[in-house]
Amino acid sequence: MLYSFLSVTFTGSIQAEPVKIGVLAFRSQQGMQQQWQPLTRMLKTAIPEHDFVIEALSHNELEMAVFSRQIDFILTSPAHYIQIAHHIGLSSPLATLINSYDDKGLAAFGGVIFSLKTRNDIQRLADIRGKNVAAVGQESLGGYHLQIHELQKAGLKAGKNYKIQTTGTPHDKVVEAVLSGKADAGFVRTGVLESLAQQGKLDINTISIINNQDLPDFPLFISTRLFPEWPFASLPQIDEKLARRVTAALFMLSDHSDVSRSIGIQGFTVPADYLATNELLRELRAPPYENLPGFTLNDVWRRYNTQILAILFTAACIIALGIALIIANRRLRVERKNVLQQTIKLQESEALWKFALEGAGDGVWDWHIPTGQVFFSKQWKAMIGYAEDEFENTFDSWKDHLHPDDSDRVLATVHNYFEKNLPLYTTEFRIRSKNGEWHWILSRGMVVSYSESNEPLRMIGTHTDINERKQAEFDLRKSNADLEQFAYSVSHDLRQPLRMVTGHLQLVEKHLDAVLNNDDRENMNFALQGAKRMDAMIVSLLEYSRVGRKSAPKSKHPSQTALDNALFFLVPARQEAHAEITISGEWPEIIASQDEMTRLFLNLTSNAIKYRNKEQPPIIHIHGHMENTIWRVTISDNGIGIIPSQIPRLFQFFSRLQSRAKFEGTGMGLALCRKIVEHHEGRIWAESEGEGKGSRFIFEIPVKTSETA
Predict the structure, then answer these.
(1) Beta strand pairing status for 619-627 and 580-585?
(2) What's 128's DSSP letter?
(3) Which of 123, 130, 384, 595 lies at a CB distance of 3.0 to 4.6 Å from 551, suitable for a disulfide?
């Protein structure tokens, strides 16, 4: 029976995760979730080997889901798509949504400016001056940017000529604000007023449309020009073949009239051109272009002045480099004299050096580069099973014994040191021993002489036997990989039954609401909160197991890009806490996983905001510093601090130093930070002078010169 249970568990753990489609919930999240459910069944029929899940999410939730690779496809507004693609990266749109109104397909939408018909003082755009206007928020294209653009063309600027009152989603709240008199006018997306009227929530005859366009073949109220409907796109990790199949199924949606009618759309069409949307956001300096410098006709002279200054600066750099070259040549002549003197001293001590290394048990080699002859010591040959007279003393013989997977890398390393005239190198590789087995070697080499034309003449070095160490490392990596796969499988499989428990508890609570006393409600709430905390802990374990496995591969990129991405996601938390964040120091290019580095900065900075003193806003300073090839980052705050004796517990699994009543969390954030840093061959630690005295979190990672370093 135990064997059967383990077999079932293992089989379930390796099943593919469902394909998740994130949909922006500009109306009720629950309503949007139900609206798009028929699409999952249609996709399952078209692609039976995959399960599909719809997740209706808010703007911030959808951004975080894209960032953490929690979803595979995204359906959102054009402005939101452009913002996410700019900061995180998405595919080009695979398809464009076709909405439906009175059985008419609409592949474009716009914005509506409206007020009550009884407001005789608001008849045209100019009448908005001095008024209070309701809008869902500055992230909405159809509910904010399009109307702002129309008013801006009429000479009215938001905040200066009229006031924006933010209601948050759904758009229904904007209509409620105008109907109740809390706002003089409102901005909504096309179709919202008609939808509310069909639901009996609005008498359309009481509404006046400002700047009505009356466009041919467009049956909805509209105050702006038309823009393409929502794009459907895939995340970078999605297999291209699956993306094509999903896209093909979407294009066939119009053939499934029952599915499209139940969703309330006509289907999808080939991707539209979103260049106009992109240019509108750029013109409005809306996200992601909020930091672009303004440009008007008055700035033309400044633009050309900058080009002139750039040319002058380039010329100054050339002059400075020329002077530096003259100085460097003078120094080079002096250094050549010093090198000749050092060469003589080196040759005198070479015999003693070889003798010392032979005694230490390392194998010594001495390579005369022009002839290709190499002296291999007795210990060197014995290391790979050869007698003193059995191994040919040539460079080609050594090269022929290199492992095919290591040969190009090792030879490129040697050539790189020759070309750059560097004194030392260290590398690891496998070499074939006499019995045919591959033996791991640590090689250290030193160029001891160059010709007058700067060609390398001679190199000497050592080979150290590291075979046992590499085998131990291999066993350890395999063990860690098995443990991580086990943790991932267990965590993944626990979520589904836990969701069932939570869902059924909620149904029981709703069904028994009328008969539950206060104690029963409190106990039911404890059970629900416990299930939610367990789900959060399981999600944390899944994120922990994904480090190095499902995150983006390591690549070369500016280190501050990851920090900028993290701070972008923390904008709401920073604004709520009134946090002041400053950045200084050195931010080099690094070889790292950008996803993981963003998560590292996100966790450390959000902790600095979260664990703050209630009496004062957070003050956070992030400083980068290079020391040789090590990059150190320090994140300092003025928060609640840490008892020094408790610091060793910080980076352990599910370790919490503060009660959950004061600060929510799973206790896995810093453990995840530690794993990310260790995945990048670094280390992380914390410092604090005690409670109420703030904290410093410091991590160090090596800065490599190439992705194979």
Answers:
(1) parallel
(2) G
(3) 595
> Distance between CA atoms of 641 and 624, rounded to whole angstroms?
22
Host H or E run for residue 493: helix 467-511
pLDDT digits (tens, 9 = 90+) for 548-601: 555 667 888 899 998 998 898 888 888 988 999 999 999 999 988 888 888 889
Closest CA to 465 of 589, 382, 524, 407: 382
pLDDT of residue 709: 45
For the stretch 595-624, pLDDT in tens is: 888 888 988 998 888 888 888 899 999 999
Residue at token pair 């093909």 = 248
For 203, what's the count of Cα atoms within 13 Å in the CB-facing half-sphere?
5
**β 52-57/19-24 pair status:** parallel
Structure tokens belonging to residue 704? 């490599």
Structure tokens at 149: 């653009």
674 vs 654: CA distance, rounded Å: 13
Q: DSSP 3-state assignment of 442?
A: strand
Residue count of the chain? 709
- In 34-69, which positions are buried (b, 16+ CB within 10 angstroms) versus exposed (e)? ebbebbbebbbebbeebebebbbbebebbbebbbbb
C-beta of residue 653 within 8 angstroms of C-beta of residue 580: no
183 pLDDT tier (thresholds 50, 70, 90): very high
Give whole-number Cα distances, 324 to 179, 191, 339, 530, 655, in Å: 73, 67, 21, 68, 55
pTM over 0.90: no
Q: Determine contact, residues 136/213, Cβ cutoff 8 Å.
A: no
Distance of CA 335 to the CA centre of its chain: 47
Give every CB contact of residue 468 below 8 A, 6+ residues apart in sequence. Answer: none
Residues 6+ apart with CB under 8 A from 229: 78, 96, 97, 98, 99, 106, 107, 108, 109, 272
Residue 12: partners with Cβ closer than 8 Å, 6 or more residues away: 493
Please enumerate in sequence order all residues whose Cβ is within 8 A of that of 317, keeping only pairs 6 or more positions apart, or say none: none
Query: Of all helices (H) and strands (E), which one includes residue 440?
Result: strand 438-450
For residue 690, give both structure tokens.
């005690």
With a cut of 70, say whether residue 7 has pLDDT above it. Answer: no
Which parts of 361-394 fold into alpha helices (H)?
378-383
| Residue 352 confidence (pLDDT) above 50 | no
Look at residues 436, 456, 439, 455 and name the one whose alpha carbon lies nearest to residue 447: 456
Ordered DSSP codes for 653-692? TT--SS-TTTS---S-HHHHHHHHHHHTT-EEEEE-SSTT
In degrees, to the nearest 5, what angle opens at C-alpha 94 toward C-alphas 93 and 99?
Answer: 90
Only one residue has tokens 């900061």, namely 87
CB contact set of 377 (below 8 Å; sequence gap of 6+): 354, 358, 363, 364, 365
Do 281 and 145 touch, CB atoms closer than 8 A?
Answer: yes
Question: Could you tell me which residues come within 8 angstroms of residue 569 by beta carbon, excluding any fewer than 6 positions away?
Answer: 60, 63, 64, 67, 602
Residue 496 and residue 21 in contact, taking contact as beta carbons nearer than 8 Å:
no
pLDDT tops 70 at residue 191: yes
